[in-house]
Design brief:
The protein has about 575 residues and is mostly helical. It contains 30 helices and 6 strands. It binds one DNA strand of 10 nucleotides through helix 3, helix 5, helix 7, helix 9 and helix 11. Keywords: Repeat.
DNA sequence: CTAGGGTTAG
């Protein structure tokens, strides 16, 4: 037995496993060693030598499979590329329910999380209660996590609330669930409740969720506090934590602080560390530093992967380093990294912004995979910037073929026509939008003032001080007009749907946030705003003027990058 | 006839 055990240890490839199994079968010992069979099963079912068809075939040879043997297969399938298979096996298994234990449920739930199978998760949930595993804290945590991952945070919260005793993992699961489910404010609130009210000590997993929420909100003050805690508690010995800190500083607008952490890490850097930092420089338009780091990485022991290339390409794109970007893109295949849709998208954007519209179009045509909506949107955007009506129409046609309902696509096409004063065509686009029930993604922005996050949506009147904010904005517009500002109306598609308020256009969220920042922070303090969409051209002009007239540094993070406005200029050099 | 299950950065 012991010798078989050690033999099994050496079976690192599937062939050797098969050989061992053949030996057991031919010597007639196979069915007398159920535990060995289980280990064999697990070896076949789980990575790194996973071969699930083989594992399931092996399983079918068993006369009366034990719970453990069932579990091995369910677990393996749950981690495989077909998690729905695990759910199917679980269902079969539940027909003989005495076989199911808490682990089976745990694996099946994991499968639901990966397959985004909400109703299956609910079914398993009710069976968990039926089978009497309802009090199992580990299972409940998994359940909570699954609900969060399949997008039902209400259910996740409910599971959490109903738990008698909660250990740190329960809190962590909900905090990261909220952070990953686009509810960063609630994630931070829960983090605070956990540490301040319940007196629980955040661990390395807790801070990851909290930092991610700070990154989303651009909540620098809160992020710094968490960083201080991390240092005090020596949680910075975990690479994963350092990576999250770097990302937080970068997304809160401080590439230098991010870089400081990067350089002073006591633990070793991994691939993600490098990628995070390169992405940080990219977001800040610091193409040279990004490329320098990419070069260093190439020399270090970590090998750039697809994300590294994407980050470096983004850096070239934001910094207008067209030649470098093209060179990098062309070098990918030679380094064994196949470009994916995102790489193609970035290069198309890079060429398009540089006015090389035809080349961008050719890149799309040369793609080995199906060009998605984003590619055509990018080309449409470039065509608009360079007033290339033919290409804009071509791209729009593609978008319509692909069934786009994005407001932006229609607006861009309309803008191209408007720029050429083709008003009939503008009207046609507007009609098409009405017919297609085009949805506009609501824009919103955040600003942190004295550690409190304020959220604004376009045309927002929900803030307690909204009258004051609107008055400030009116004052701003009045003052900057003296510097030659004139609203660019031909770029704005008016009356999109009747219910669209005039306000939404005159009082966009980023302007409101900046106005609020001017009122509520001291002179000389930089103002930081986070926006969920890309900044619009008009706001860009206005904020540049504000930075000059009010002598304030204003930092805006939009969906893709940072804009640092100072003395009437922007760090993106109007290239974004 | 053992242990194996929960939260985790780009």
């Amino acid at each position: 037995m012991a010798s078989l055990d050690s033999l099994l240890q050496k079976c690192t490839s599937l062939t050797s496993i098969k050989q061992l199994q053949a030996h057991l079968l031919t010597s007639g010992k196979f069915q007398f060693y159920p535990s060995l069979t289980t280990i064999l099963l697990e070896r076949c079912a789980l990575s790194p030598v996973a071969n699930l068809p083989y594992a399931t075939a092996l399983f079918r040879h068993l006369q009366n499979p034990s719970t453990n043997q069932w579990n091995a297969v369910v677990r393996g399938l749950a981690q495989s590329l077909q998690p729905t298979q695990a759910i199917a096996w679980y269902k079969t298994m539940s027909q003989a329910s005495q076989k199911i234990d808490a682990l089976t449920c745990s694996f099946a739930l994991k499968a639901c999380a990966r397959a985004l199978a909400f109703s299956e998760a609910m079914q398993i949930h009710s069976q968990i209660v039926q089978f009497g595993f309802g009090a199992d804290v580990l299972l409940r945590t998994t359940l909570l996590d699954v609900y969060a991952k399949v997008g039902d945070l209400g259910f996740a919260q409910k599971v959490f609330d109903e738990m008698g005793q909660r250990d740190i993992a329960c809190w962590n699961a909900l905090i990261s669930g909220l952070a990953q489910g686009n509810r960063p404010t609630e994630a931070i609130a829960l983090f605070q409740r956990m540490s301040e009210e319940e007196g629980l000590k955040p661990n390395e997993v807790t801070v990851l969720g909290a930092l991610s929420a700070c990154s989303q909100l651009g909540a620098l003050k809160r992020g710094e506090k968490i960083h201080a805690y991390i240092m005090d508690e020596k949680l910075d010995m975990h690479v994963i934590v350092c990576n999250a800190v770097i990302d937080m500083y970068a997304k809160c607008g401080f590439e230098d602080k991010a870089y400081w952490v990067f350089e002073n890490m006591k633990c070793g850097k991994n691939l993600i560390t490098w990628n995070t930092m390169i992405m940080a420089f990219a977001m800040h338009g610091n193409g040279d530093k990004a490329l320098e780091l990419f070069g260093q990485m190439d020399k270090s022991e970590v090998c750039p992967d697809a994300v590294s290339y994407l980050a470096a390409l983004c850096a070239c794109n934001h910094a207008g380093l067209v030649a470098d970007g093209v060179r990098l893109f062309n070098s990918m295949a030679g380094h064994g990294v196949a470009p994916n849709v995102k790489h193609y998208g970035t290069v198309v954007d890079l060429l398009g912004r540089a006015g090389r519209i035809q080349e961008a179009y050719e890149i799309i045509n040369s793609m080995p995979m199906f060009p998605d909506v984003v590619l055509w949107q990018t080309l449409l955007g470039a065509s608009k910037t360079y007033r290339n009506v033919e290409m804009a129409e071509l791209a729009s046609r593609k978008l319509i073929e692909l069934g786009s309902k994005g407001c932006g696509d229609f607006v861009l096409l309309s803008n191209v026509y408007a720029a050429h004063e083709r008003w009939d065509d503008v009207g046609r686009v507007r009609e098409a939008m009405k017919k297609r029930d085009v949805k506009k993604i609501p824009g919103f922005g955040y600003i942190e003032v004295e550690g409190v996050i304020h959220k604004f949506v376009n045309g927002d009147q929900s803030h307690t001080n909204w009258r004051e904010i609107y008055a400030k904005l009116d004052e701003i517009m009045f003052r900057i007009k003296a510097y030659g500002y004139a609203a660019k109306t031909n770029n704005v598609l008016h009356d999109i749907g009747e219910e669209e308020k005039e306000n939404a256009l005159s009082y966009p969220c980023e302007k409101l946030a900046v106005a609020f920042g001017l009122i509520s922070t001291n002179e000389g303090t930089p103002i930081q705003v986070i926006k969920n969409l890309r900044i619009c051209e008009d706001c860009h002009v206005v904020i540049k003027l504000i930075s000059k007239v009010y002598n304030r540094e204003i930092i805006v993070r939009d969906r893709a990058r940072f804009h640092r406005f100072k003395e009437g200029l922007c760090s993106c050099r109007d290239y974004w």
